[in-house]
User: Fold these one by one.
Assistant:
Number 1:
Amino acid sequence: MDFNFQNPTRIIFGWGALGNLRQAADSFGPGRILLVTGKTAMRKSGVIGKIIAELGPERVAVFDQVEPNPSAATVDRGVEVCRKEKCGLIIGLGGGSPLDAAKAMAVLVSNPGRVLEYLEGKSLKHPGLPLIAIPTTSGSGSEVTPYSILTVPEKRLKFSLRNPILYPRVAIIDPLLTVGLPPRQTAATGLDVLAHALESLWSKNHQPLAALFAERAIELIFQHLVRAYRTGDDPAARTGMSEASMLGGLAISQTGTTAIHPASYPLTFDFGFEHGLACAIFIPSFLRINRPAIGERLARLLRILNLENLESLEGKIQTLMRELEAPICLRQIGVKEEDLYRLAERGFGKSSALNPVDLRREDLEKILKEIY
Ligand SMILES: [Fe+2]
């Protein structure tokens, strides 16, 4: 089998790993730093204050305006601040949203124009500012991927930048930072990892190294997610989920996601349904649909998980979702039957073509009816 594997992000992982930030930042020189983060969570937890004190207040400009599912406009504003403050390094701190926004800002600083032009196809030519990514959830894996997913509200859609220059230079993955994450977000982000790992495994772009990461991520999710959900301060559970998230990110950094991610976006956009939960609701149906195209890979996964057949894997996933109190049908989140046609129509994106089984609008509509 032929494949390429490259992931240039340096990973510093461990309980308390945030203590390495100063040294990592200094390795890029003494210049000013833009700290990109969300509106409240990290300020409340005191992490922002700690980081500023550690790096020196005179050195740090803060952009804390990143909303969930960040918009292209937010990225453009951050780029302006970065230029005005003459920053030479960006630190992204938070869940997938601040990290994705920070990644886009880092490359837009050195590529002229607005981010929307690049989301619509203009190519990114110049390497961006160095970026240190510090995840505070265990889900997106954005700290080790070359993607930035952004929302364009006028078009009612999510778009992505995909380019190796988006890889963070350093990922500091400190499970301690996920301890305060509320149960619902722990569940949602953890299920996002499950979607990443499964989609990477069954992607048309699948490859053996990414598969190793994906398989291990799935094992860790079954071992640790329910515990992290119920007992948020359990170090083993939080560390296990941070590891799973990183491995899921490493897997999709090579293969991308497939049809579940674009199918989930309209649910997040129109119904405010959290990203990971919106992905997870599709998993059982896609497992069944994709089964004929992934025989050997599925058999290997079943062996690793000590399961007999697809039905037992499906059962295990359903039990997990029940234990996490994750919605399992669309009615639970306010979708009406007359919405399904439109959701199917809008549920396709670049990565849909990587699904192992080709899907048409009618097929997605059938799935949506099944989970309605
Ligand atoms: Fe995701």
Number 2:
Amino acid sequence: MVDLHAHLLPGVDDGAGALEDALRMCQLAAADGVTAAVATPHQRHEWWPNADRDDLVARFESLLSAVGATLALSLGAEIRMDSELLAEVDLLPDGSLLPLAQSRYLLLEVPPTRVGPDPRAIVHELAIAGWRPVLAHPERVPWLAEEPGSLVELVERGALLQLTAMSVTGAFGRRARECCTFLLDNDLAHFVASDAHDVSKRPPVLSDAFRVIAEGWGEARARRLTEDNPRAVLEDRAIQKDVA
Ligand SMILES: [Fe+2]
């Protein structure tokens, strides 16, 4: 399996604190059957802006050499969607932002309250410019999850949706799980990732969600969301839309 969203980079946000913590997370992921993962520190978040890309890359290189062959690691970021986002994206490949594994995919975090720009407008602009916007855990964004129609519209405009594994299993409660069920029933989910922060409360584990999806929607779907689609991101290819 391939995990596109994990706070593995040590010392930059609310994820791994020290290098040893990150190594334990990588070992746990590997033991769970994850073969590749993207370290996705927060960017543009009010508490963790992480605007110094060179610093993030240097930290990533240290992590990479410590992890060795345990896990194939790439670097990306979970980028907060705000009114300056499009201007920052225009600076790429310069500027501060880190697309997922140097691809055209951007992992974006919609603010928890309805402030700032309309995500539909941002997704539309990014898609037109040839970017592939991936929305991190929409099922955990209350104002999106409460309006399934808004999620349908976002996907129609080019958004790809990343469910968090613990939402799929019900560990984040009934509402998040029901939103995942709606998205899976309507084939609006494109990735499952761990959004791991540590080895205990929010671990880098995908196998439980894999089982839930395999039981409810079939093994091919589970594989597509945890392996095939995230692999396409690492290789910067378009994902395969559902053919079932
Ligand atoms: Fe995250």
